[in-house]
Amino acid sequence: MKSRKVNNTKWQMMELPDGITTSDGNWYRINAGQIEKYIPGVLKKHSLESIIKAADAWVKSADGISLILYFVLLLLLPNPLYPFLISIAFFVFWFFNGSAFVNVSLSGAVKFITSDLFMYGTSALFLIAISLQETTIGFDLGIPFNAIWYGLVLFFGFKVGLFRLLFKYLNSKSDSPKAAHEDRVLNILLIRYGMKEGVLTGDLKKMQDDLIRVANYHKSRKKKK
Predict the structure, then answer these.
(1) Is residue 102 included in any domain, yes or no?
(2) Which residue, 90, 113, 158, 191, is most buried by CB atoms nearer than 10 A?
(3) What global pTM score does this model have?
(4) Sheet holding 19-22: strands in order across?
(5) Are residues 51 and 77 in the same domain?
(6) Which residues contact 142 (CB under 8 A, 6 or more apart)?
(7) Domain check: are 48 and 68 in the same one?
(8) Radius of gyration of the chain from Cα atoms?
(9) What are the residues whose beta carbons fall under 8 Å from the beta carbon of 208, sequence distance 6 or more?
(10) Mean pLDDT value across residues 119-147
(11) pLDDT tens digits for 10-27?
C-alpha cells in the first residue's frame, strides 16, 4: 500500500493491490504493475502520480467545461433557462463520451479549469456581476437576476460532484452498464501517453479491451468481498 502526496498540495493518491484511489474520490481499478505490463515503458517517461493527477482532472472536466458554457451562454441567450438546460445536456454528453476527447497536451488546461481557484473565482465574478446590475446605475449585462439561482444550482451540482455521482449510480443500475467513467478516462489517457512517447505496442483495440478487462476484474472482486 502506497500513499503519496504531490507537490505538497492537498491532492493525494494511494495505490492498493486492487487499484488506485485519490483524494478527489476517484477509484481506478488498475495498479502500476498492470499499467507497465500493458503499456511498457510509460512509467519511465511519466510518473504514476502525474498520470493519475491528469486523469483526475479529465474525470472532472465535464464539471468545469459545463459551468463555463453556462456563463458564456448567459451573454448570448436572453432566457437563463436555456443556458441552464444546454449546460446540463452538455454535461451528460461529456460524461458518457468525453473520454474520446482526452488529450495529453490539453491536460494542463483541463487541470486549470477544474481547479478550485478557477471554478470558485469564475462563479463568484459572474454571480457578483449579475447581482450588481440591480444596484449599479449604468451597469447592465442584459442578464436576468434569476440567472443567479440557476448558476448556484449548477455550481453546487458540478463542484460538489452531485451530477457525476447521479450518473455513475444510474450507469451502475442499467442493464448493460459501461465501464466506470474514471476507468474509461484513464484507459484513453494511458494510450495517449503511450502513443506520444512511442512506447505503445500492439493493437489499440486490444489494448483498450485489456485495460477495461483488468478494471472489470477488480470491480467484480470488490463486489465479492
Answers:
(1) yes
(2) 158
(3) 0.80
(4) 2-5, 12-16, 19-22, 27-28
(5) no
(6) 75, 78
(7) no
(8) 20
(9) 187, 188, 191
(10) 80
(11) 889 999 888 899 988 899
d(CA 184, CA 136): 48
Three cell numbers at 194? 503511450
How would residue 127 be classed by pLDDT, with cut points 50, 70 and 90?
A: confident
* Any domain includes 100: yes
Hey, how many other C-beta atoms are within 10 angstroms of the C-beta on 131?
13
Whether 168 and 65 map to the same domain: the answer is: yes
Q: In Å, how far are 95, 133, 166 from 89, measured between CA atoms?
A: 10, 28, 14
Give the count of domains, the chain.
2
Residue carrying the nine cell digits 476527447: 101
Which residue in 14, 15, 33, 62 sits closest to 182, CA to CA?
62
Looking at the predicted structure, is the pLDDT value of residue 3 above 70? no
The partner residues of 68 in beta bridges, in order of sequence, read none
Domain that holds residue 44: 2-59+199-219
